[in-house]
Specification:
The complex is a heterodimer of chains A (266) and B (161). Chain A has 266 residues and is of the alpha+beta class. Chain A is 35% helix and 18% strand. In chain A, 35% of the residues are buried. In chain B, a hairpin with a 4-residue loop joins β3 and β4. Classes of the chains: A alpha+beta (266), B alpha+beta (161). Chain B: It holds the Pfam family Autophagy_act_C.
């Protein structure tokens, strides 16, 4: 039985946006003192946000070609290789707009990966796409068989917000089948906790798994439970969500499910 | 988390002595072997530190500034591999050198990308049992980034099963 690709849900996930208020760091003196307001796609990445704000940053006298731009939320540097929506859900903030600060100096090399450029973000994105392919099928040949143009198109359509162009390519990678091996899934407990990624199969002795089964295997001390709830794209997920449907329709553009475990009460 | 195997090679630091006017500078390199759930193979993570440049940060395991990839190429990575700089950090068959958050420690480490490991290990698959896998794997990819193994590990002896 094949899983139907839910294009309505998929489009809603793609179109998810976050209002963000970006303040400048007062200790880095600038002519502009007003914060910047933008609406960022949850599926986007901070280096792409930086690129969209290039004209504003240039107006402040910042030479972007020579500057490592980074952002923090309440003093915590934000990982530029994580999708924006994941960063927001992970922060636990309920603010709208989400209030973060931009920095042009003192890049925290010990905390953030170096060189937060669009090219570096694209490299890491493609590494995740390859890993998702390997997990689902046991080889990376679907990604490696894409033409160079198609490979670039995955990232470019994400950065230009072109849903149809993205899926023109991604449909070849994510085609559902009955012989999928492992679920591309990363679980986040909090910023201080290492990311949890384990080898998780789609079925249990032929029976399709639901999200609750997977979480019980990986986090037996938290699931089943009344206080912990899985969230992705700001959506609290029911535990009886079929994992194959979730992987097909709720993944980020890198074809991974990124799930944050939150407190039920928050 | 018990599936993650970590071996910290702090007992075998690679050191490079630089002669400077102020005296000698010592670099320390640490290597970690971590299991990759994505590719189901071991991955070699590494970072180098220059104790001479005093910059304490709360997350540094070692005192001193972390070395950049260029500095690692200069001091740690074997000369034969220097040309790989032109080919996007590729260490011939082993995979590329990239950077990501250490899976357990959570802060930036360099690592050799594991996507080629399976096919590399298949080339020498005769006689590899689970106990010799790590030794064989490390002997293949370690030396190019300065992580060498004593030949004693490969001598058969009554205690060395």
């Amino acid at each position: 039985m094949s899983v139907v690709f839910d294009d309505i849900i998929s489009k809603k996930i793609w179109d998810g946006k976050l209002p963000i208020q970006i303040s400048l760091n007062p200790s880095e003196s600038h002519s502009l003192t007003e914060p910047i307001f933008i609406e960022a796609a949850r599926c986007s990445y901070l280096p792409l946000v930086t690129e969209h704000l290039a004209s504003i940053y240039n107006g402040l006298g910042i030479d972007l070609t020579n500057t490592d731009v980074w952002y923090d939320y309440q003093g915590e540097p934000l990982k530029w290789h994580y999708p924006v929506g994941l960063l927001y859900d992970l922060s636990g903030s309920k603010d709208r707009p989400w209030r973060i600060t931009v920095h042009f100096q003192d890049f925290p090399n010990d905390i953030l990966l170096k060189s937060p450029s669009v090219e570096a973000a694209q490299d890491i994105f493609m590494a995740m796409v390859k890993q998702a392919d390997f997990l689902r099928h046991g080889t990376t040949k679907r990604v490696m068989n894409l033409s160079k143009n198609d490979q670039s198109q995955l990232w470019e359509s994400l950065s230009l917000d072109r849903f149809d162009e993205y899926w023109n390519v991604n449909q070849h990678l994510i085609a559902d089948s009955d012989s999928l091996r492992y679920v591309p899934l990363r679980i986040y407990l909090s910023n201080q906790c290492p990311v949890i990624q384990e080898v998780v199969s789609f079925t249990n002795e032929g029976n399709p798994k639901v999200l609750g089964d997977v979480l019980k295997d990986i986090l037996p001390d938290l699931f089943p439970s009344k206080s912990a709830t899985p969230m992705t794209h700001g959506i609290r997920l029911p535990l009886d969500t079929p994992i194959r449907w979730a992987s097909q329709n709720l993944s980020f553009p890198d074809n991974f499910l990124h799930v944050v475990i939150c407190n039920e009460d928050s | 988390m018990d599936e993650l195997l970590v071996l910290q090679e702090t007992s075998d630091p690679a050191t490079a002595k630089l002669s400077e006017q102020e005296g000698e500078t010592h670099l320390t390199v640490e290597y970690h072997i971590v299991y990759s759930p994505g590719y189901q193979v071991p991955v070699l993570y590494f970072n180098g530190y220059d104790a001479g440049k005093k910059k304490r940060t709360p997350l540094s395991l070692k005192e001193g500034t972390a070395l950049s990839l260029d500095e690692l190429y200069q001091w740690i990575i074997s000369k034969e591999m220097q040309q790989s700089l032109q080919h996007g950090n590729r260490l011939s068959q082993q995979g590329s050198i990239s950077q990501e958050d250490h899976p357990i420690l959570g802060f930036p480490f360099y690592y050799i990308h594991p996507c080629e490991t399976q096919s590399m290990m298949r080339l020498i698959s005769h006689d590899i049992n689970i106990h010799s896998y790590i030794k064989s794997w490390l002997s293949l990819i370690g030396p190019t980034i300065g992580c060498t193994l004593s030949h004693q590990l490969f001598l058969s002896s009554p205690t060395n099963k």
